[in-house]
Amino acid sequence: MTSQSILVTGGAGYIGAHTLVELVASGYTPVVLDDLSRSSMKLMDGVKQLTGKQLSFYQVDCADKTELRRVFGLHPEISAVMHFAAFKSVNESVEKPLLYFRNNIDSLLSLLEVMQEANVNRFVFSSSCTVYGQPDRIPVTEDAPFKRPESPYGATKQMGERILEDAVKAWKELKVVSLRYFNPIGAHPSGVIGELPIGVPNNLAPYITQTAIGKRSRLTVFGSDYNTPDGSCLRDFIHVVDLAVAHVAALSTIDQLPSRFEAFNLGTGVPVSVLELLNTFMRVTGVNVPYEIGPRRPGDIEKVYADPSKSNRALRWRTKLTIEDALRDAWRWEQNLAK
Ligand code: WQD
After folding, report:
1. Which helix or strand (DSSP H or E) is residue 287 part of?
2. Of 291, 301, 243, 276, nearest to 84 (Cα)?
3. For a Cys staple, 153 with which of 31, 93, 332, 335, CB 3.0–4.6 Å?
4. In the annotation, is 153 catalytic?
5. Catalytic residue among 153, 181, 207, 305
6. Can you give the pLDDT at residue 2?
């Protein structure tokens, strides 16, 4: 029986590449699209090394319907789409809102239109906990109301989910799973693939590992006067491999879910502060990370972490890896990059 063929947009990116590895391990055949604007073939080379497969790859902008039609025409066997391709920097989106709305929304709309033409009607959407804004109640559940998003990036994810909910109502065959990531960290334990930030990292974990290896002189902790146990923000840091496994679980259960649009929190349910993550990194690696306490970063949520029980139950998935695992794996990857 030929394995199911899955179109993976943004497959050369951080979450996408880790998901390719898990898809192949579960017997799927990914077809990869990426415009390489925020990624490189380095992770695709790593995926080939880990899977032993030369996956079909197309350097395509997901907003380009002509190119999308060409790929779907070359691969009529595609039965589902996993859509990772989007810009995802919170503070870049504040500086360049039009770029974010144009890229993230155009890509989604073009992809859905061509999927409908090709009669491909299973869709896994890369969403984010930013859709909640600052939740009134934490841990946050999927039925929490969407507060006003703190950034254009968060707004594109909220809009994306709204587009998908309305598309499902009108397109009776379409089934959608929207996966709301909390804070992905870490790297594949092989050290062959990991996070490849372009320029100065916005996210905490790569900034820690780049400071540890000496690429950055010191880490700034953005604020220690929050209403939290140690004053720094609380987050839900999830190992990227656990996150990738959740995508395969979503794909394999999409036809058994109660409705044709279902959203899931992908987090550990365990709140960890910025300072705790930093101190855990130093403890597990034995590497000192120089840091200073700076002012709060505009747009930051004070505390957000998941209630993952719906995902645990409906996807029959739960996180297995710890922040210690993630930080060790991230550090191994950073050291390999420096070789
Ligand atoms: C985490 C905490 C910072 C850097 C965003 C997106 C989310 C997801 C992950 C895509 C905050 C603090 C950070 C630094 C610091 N993106 N920090 N010093 O903003 O929680 O989430 O990235 O999947 O959708 O919203 O992640 O890692 O930027 O920040 O103190 O140098 O670390 O203030 O409290 P964030 P982050």
Report:
1. none
2. 243
3. 93
4. yes
5. 153
6. 54
